[in-house]
Amino acid sequence: AEDAALRVEKGAESFVVFRNADTDAISILYRRTDGNLGLIEPE
């Protein structure tokens, strides 16, 4: 998750799809319109 956050914060990507090492689930980290990061995790 930290690597994904760095990629989005640097502006290289507007979103990153990654496998969460803790849960082994696919997650999406993205830049919200207010400038903060958002995280989508499956249930």
Summary tags:
single chain; SHC Adaptor Protein; 35% strand; 43 residues; globular; alpha+beta
CATH architecture: 2-Layer Sandwich
Order of helices and strands: HEEE
CATH class: Alpha Beta
The total of beta strands comes to 3
CATH topology: SHC Adaptor Protein
Characterize the largest beta sheet: strand count, sense, and whether it forms a barrel.
3 strands, antiparallel
Share of residues in helices: 10-25%
Strand residue content: 25-35%
Mean pLDDT: 87
Widest beta sheet: strand line-up: 1-2-3
Rounded to an integer in angstroms, the radius of gyration calculated over CA atoms is 10 Å
Tally of alpha and pi helices:
1
Uncertain runs: none
From the N-terminal CA to the C-terminal CA, the straight-line distance is 17 Å
Number of domains: 1
Assign the CATH superfamily: Sigma 54 modulation/S30EA ribosomal protein, C-terminal domain
Q: Structural class, from secondary structure content?
A: alpha+beta
Shape: globular
Strand and helix map with partners:
Elements: H1 2-9, E1 15-19, E2 26-31, E3 37-40
Antiparallel strand pairs: 1-2, 2-3
Detailed description of the structure:
The longest helix is centred in the N-terminal third of the chain and has 8 residues, at 2-9. The protein has one domain: 2-Layer Sandwich (SHC Adaptor Protein), CATH 3.30.505. 5% of the residues are buried. The chain contains 1 helix and 3 strands. It has a 3-stranded antiparallel beta sheet with strand order 1-2-3, with helices on one face. By secondary structure, the protein is α+β, with helices and mostly antiparallel strands.
